[in-house]
Amino acid sequence: MKMKTYRIRKPKIVVVGGGTGLPVILKSLRNQGADITAVVTVADDGGSSGEIRDTIDMAPPGDMRNVLVALSDMPQLYEDIFQYRFDAEDSFLANHAIGNLIIAAVSEMRGSTYDAIQLLSKMMHVDGHIYPSSEQPLVLHAVFKDGTSAVGESKIAIDRKTIDHVFVRNVEGDDTPTAARKVVASIMDADMVVLGPGSLFTSILPNLVIPEIGEALVSTKAEVVYICNIMTQKGETEHFTDADHVRVLNNHLKNQFIDTVLVNTEKVPDDYMDPEIYDEYLVQVKHDFNGLREEGCRVVSTDFLELRDGGVFHDGTKVVEELFRIVFGAKV
């Protein structure tokens, strides 16, 4: 029988990102008893989230829905209902997740997606804090190496061009976005800030290029940890090494702000991934340990791999065990 480890206090860990990788880490952090704050991207413009944000003036709900579920202790049946997605042939409800519609309704009731997420966090008994990175929906812009550009998170990967850099603007007007309430304070007060796992240019960087958040990441005394992706992504990180991922992050903030990078070294079996389901992923990210050292970060390389359902994922338990080793070691 395993004995529960009791610590003097919970480590304050802020996790920044979006997409499917974020909930995996959050769920494992919750199971280990961390003081969690999730900062979630609001630049998604595809699928159900994109349709809702185009119809109602609100931040896209999809990533926040998944984070609410990851940090909630609600019964499985309630989670299944919240996550249920209508069938493609269901007319105007087609492909919408019920949770997205609930977030949209509460956002309209409260006049704010930020306030809606705080209310739903209480209703769903969320263990931690969930903040959108900005209180306004954002538009992601990509500038490619050939000088052309694309507007919209869902449009960036279509032409499979090499991205030079990305930036965000408010949906309404071209104003520079500002961070949501409590986001900067959470980063400054954290013991650790975790970036990813998630799409480099469309899930992680849309948060970091909000100037206030980028400045906080550079100046915080927290250990900044990047969980490097296991696979390259079509139209985003084709031919990237692990060092290329870190270099892009550092270049966007014009500072070597990544303290530690977690790198998976376990090989993905040939022809394992189901291309019908995971068509955006290409090959396994190659290692460049000299390049990582040049970026000024510590490297933790081991087996973080989980294979399931024909897909390649980070093993949340293994990752979080390493994060706890780092956060307590850094504070000794």
TrEMBL record:
UniProt GO molecular function: LPPG:FO 2-phospho-L-lactate transferase activity
Membrane among keywords: no
Similarity field: Belongs to the gluconeogenesis factor family.
Identification of the protein by name: Putative gluconeogenesis factor
Biological role: Required for morphogenesis under gluconeogenic growth conditions.
A Pfam family annotated for this UniProt entry: CofD
Entries under InterPro entries matching the protein: CofD, CofD-like_dom_sf, Gluconeogen_factor
Localization in the cell: Cytoplasm
Keywords: Cytoplasm
A cellular component term, taken from the record's GO annotations: cytoplasm
Protein's UniProt keywords contain Flavoprotein: no
Any GO BP annotation: regulation of cell shape
Chief place of localization: cytoplasm
Lineage per the UniProt record: Bacteria, Bacillati, Bacillota, Bacilli, Lactobacillales
